[in-house]
Every structure is written in C-alpha cells, then in structure tokens.
C-alpha cells in the first residue's frame, strides 16, 4: 500500500494549515516527456502571467542520459503574500500540462527540516490538484480553492528518494546534467 492509499483511507483534518515557508530549501520540479523548448516556453508564460506575484526564479536543466528535465526554483526575497508552497504547486501543475510524469521535491537545508514532495493528482480530471507530503503529513491540495486536506503522519524513516527512484527511476545527482 502506497502512502497515497493511506491518505484516501484516513483523512483526519481539513484546514489551511501552513505549508513549510520554503526558506532554506533546495526546490525542484522534475518533468518527463517534454521537450526543453516546450518547458522553457511554459516557464516564460508562467512568468508573464504571474510576474508580480511569483516568489521564484526558475532555471531549466536536462538530466544526463535521461528523458527527464528539472527546474531549479530559487525563492526570491520578500515576494510571497501566502506560503511560497502554493506557487510551487501551481508551477508544478503549469509545467505538467503535457508531461508524461512530473513531481515536485524540495529538501530542507535546516537542521531537522523535513522534505516536501508533491505530484499531480491523477484522479482529478481538471488537473488542478496535488497530493504529497509536507511537514511529515500526507496532504491533498486543490490549488484554485487554496484548500488543503491533511491526513496521517508519515514515518520519520520514510525514504523520499527511494520512493522517487522506485516510482519514476530518478536518481539525484547533478553530475553531468546541463543547464538549458
């Protein structure tokens, strides 16, 4: 049973509980099955639409020997009115438009900080929601409604990178990756 199956069975709370502030996080979005030119165009469209609101700058990379690209997001100072995690998830949905697979993964550089993981909710035909783990708990998030439903806690021993490798075949190593 995956952790999303656990979420479906044990929903325990609905609230606008805060996502991590994303400061001192290394923030990424991974996308498979898209050309670099399409991803760059979508990144530019996003910046044109949300230029006064987005709290991130974005750089695109191609993973070596892989059909995956990833976007490195850098949190800009003093730009977010609400948690940057909302924008992070919105960018994930925006870049996922034609992707075969995509997911967001951020890890904290703070001592004791917890990773942040999300993927597009494939059960939603509108494509405007995500499921994932933040603050050590499973969540469902509807972006247009800015609604979060929280459920069971995830074990502190949960291995995010192992899960990502088993689910998508992605290993984390920037060696040989190239900026586009």
Structure characterization notes:
The protein is an alpha+beta fold and 180 residues long. 23% of the residues lie in helices and 33% in strands. The protein has 4 helices and 10 strands. A 10-stranded antiparallel beta sheet has the order 1-9-8-7-6-5-2-4-3-10, with helices on both faces. β5 and β6 form a beta hairpin. The protein starts with a helix and ends with a strand.
In short, what is this structure?
With 180 residues, this protein is an alpha+beta fold. The chain has helices at residues 3-9, 36-49, 84-95, 160-168, and strands at 13-15, 25-32, 56-62, 68-75, 101-108, 116-120, 129-134, 137-142, 147-153, 178-179.
SSE topology sketch:
Blueprint: H1 3-9, E1 13-15, E2 25-32, H2 36-49, E3 56-62, E4 68-75, H3 84-95, E5 101-108, E6 116-120, E7 129-134, E8 137-142, E9 147-153, H4 160-168, E10 178-179
Antiparallel strand pairs: 1-9, 2-4, 2-5, 3-4, 3-10, 5-6, 6-7, 7-8, 8-9
Number of helices: 4
Multimer state: single chain
Structural class: alpha+beta
The outline comes out as globular
Strand order of the largest sheet: 1-9-8-7-6-5-2-4-3-10
C-alpha end-to-end distance? 38 Å
Measured as a percent range, the helix fraction is: 10-25%
Query: Unreliable segments (pLDDT under 50, ≥5 consecutive)?
Result: 1-14
User: What is the H/E string?
Assistant: HEEHEEHEEEEEHE
Number of separate strands: 10
Largest sheet: 10 strands, antiparallel
Which strand-content bin applies to the residues? 25-35%
Mean pLDDT: 82
Radius of gyration: 16 Å
């Amino acid at each position: 049973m995956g952790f999303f199956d656990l979420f479906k069975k044990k929903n325990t709370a609905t609230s606008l509980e805060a996502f991590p502030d994303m400061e001192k996080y290394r923030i990424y979005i991974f996308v498979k099955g898209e050309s670099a030119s399409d991803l760059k165009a979508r990144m530019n469209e996003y910046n044109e639409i949300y230029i006064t609101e987005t709290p991130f700058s974005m750089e695109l990379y191609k993973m070596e020997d892989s059909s995956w690209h990833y976007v490195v997001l850098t949190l800009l100072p003093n730009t977010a009115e609400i948690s940057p995690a909302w924008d992070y998830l919105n960018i994930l949905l925006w870049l996922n438009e034609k992707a075969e697979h995509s997911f967001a993964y951020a890890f904290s550089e703070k001592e004791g900080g917890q990773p942040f993981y999300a993927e597009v909710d494939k059960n939603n035909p509108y494509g405007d929601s995500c499921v994932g783990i933040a603050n050590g708990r499973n969540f469902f998030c509807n972006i247009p409604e800015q609604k979060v439903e929280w459920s069971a806690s995830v074990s502190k021993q949960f291995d995010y990178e192992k899960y990502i490798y088993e689910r998508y075949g992605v290993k984390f190593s920037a060696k040989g990756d190239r900026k586009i």
